[in-house]
Design brief:
Low-confidence stretches: none
Mean pLDDT: 96
CATH superfamily of the domain at 4-120 and 154-181 and 243-253: NAD(P)-binding Rossmann-like Domain
Strand order of the largest sheet: 2-1-3-4-5-8
Helix content: 40-55%
Radius of gyration: 19 Å
Shape: globular
Bound molecules: NADP nicotinamide-adenine-dinucleotide phosphate
CATH topology of the domain at 4-120 and 154-181 and 243-253: Rossmann fold
């Protein structure tokens, strides 16, 4: 009998790709998010059992972040509900260098359901379809990142590793962490130069202080979001994540894609094709 897969966060950056890749390989996929049927909302655990009934393998992207308050209780509960629903493998997306995320990873790895962690560096797609994509419009990439380097990873590679972990042989993936990054570490100033080159618009990197960053986010999105994002930047951009890993190559047998090709592909996709003159 064929396996039933479910994807939590199926409308997001990784989940959409994971679901598409699974379907392209001929698997049945239950796409889950807050407006799907069945529904899956991290805020409403009373619906989780129905959402996971009959699912064999599960991909989960937790929001807002595994380092946020409440995440440990949510992952504990998810593991329990998944076990009761008969789920045989869970692949959880995690963030590299986050102490709170590490605690959630440990909870899942110690749970009854065999689990894989895909622990990713900052996404290259943050600049094209994520929280930092505004930079291409405003011309300013402002972050409390100093001149730290980050090995930005292509979300297509993250999704490909997750799909391998969902579909591959148990001993290669269960009870394991795949730590995935891009091939090279870049500063945010270097990213701004690449964005300028690929979009054809001037984009400058403006390093900010943490307090200044917190105040700017709080004014737009409120205190809780500001605190979470500031702490995430403070934690993950302190130099601990500078070195790339070989996680993509180890899982997929090929090199990870670099940021420039991600940015270039996004710029090409968003450039309207000129209509031929009649
Ligand atoms: N960005 C990075 O650089 C980075 C790096 C490493 C790890 N991560 C981790 O990536 C995860 C986010 O994954 P992503 O980037 O693939 O997703 P995303 O693009 O941020 O999209 C969020 C997804 O979650 C769904 N969602 C939002 N609120 C929800 C709720 N209350 N209950 C259930 N679903 C909800 C959204 O769908 P609906 O709105 O339709 O419900 C959407 O499918 C976070 O845990 C983050 O820590 C991010």
């Amino acid at each position: 009998m064929s396996l039933e897969f479910a994807v939590i966060g199926s409308t997001g950056k990784t989940g959409r790709r994971v679901a598409d890749l699974l379907e392209a390989r001929g698997h049945r996929v239950r796409r889950l998010a807050r407006r799907t049927t069945p529904v899956f909302d991290w805020e409403h655990p009373e619906h989780w059992a129905a959402a996971l009934q009959g699912v064999d393998r599960l991909y989960a992207a937790y929001v807002p972040d595994l380092a946020a308050p409440g995440s440990e209780a949510a992952i504990t509960r998810l593991a329990e509900v998944a076990h009761e629903a008969g789920v045989q493998r869970i692949v959880l997306l995690s963030g590299r260098g986050e102490d709170g995320a590490r605690r959630c990873e440990d909870i899942l790895l110690a749970s009854t359901v065999p689990a894989t962690i895909v622990r990713a560096s900052w996404f290259a797609q943050n600049f094209t379809e994520g929280v930092l994509s505004d930079a291409a419009v405003t011309g300013v990439l402002a972050l409390p990142a100093g001149d730290v380097r980050e090995p930005f990873v292509d979300v297509d590679d993250v999704a490909a590793v997750a799909v391998e972990a969902l579909t591959g042989a148990g001993p290669d993936h269960e009870h394991r962490v795949h730590e995935v990054t891009g091939p090279e570490s870049l500063t945010f100033a270097e990213i701004a130069v690449m964005l300028s080159e690929t979009t054809g618009r001037e984009i400058v990197y403006v390093p900010m202080g943490f307090d200044e960053f917190h105040a700017a986010i709080a004014a737009e999105d409120g205190e809780d979001v500001a605190t979470l994002l500031t702490e995430l930047c403070r934690e993950t951009l302190d130099g601990r994540n500078v070195l790339p890993t070989d996680g993509v190559r180890a899982a997929l047998g090929r090199a990870p894609r670099g940021v420039r090709s991600v940015l270039a592909a996004a710029a090409t996709a968003s450039t309207p094709t000129p209509t031929p003159a009649s």
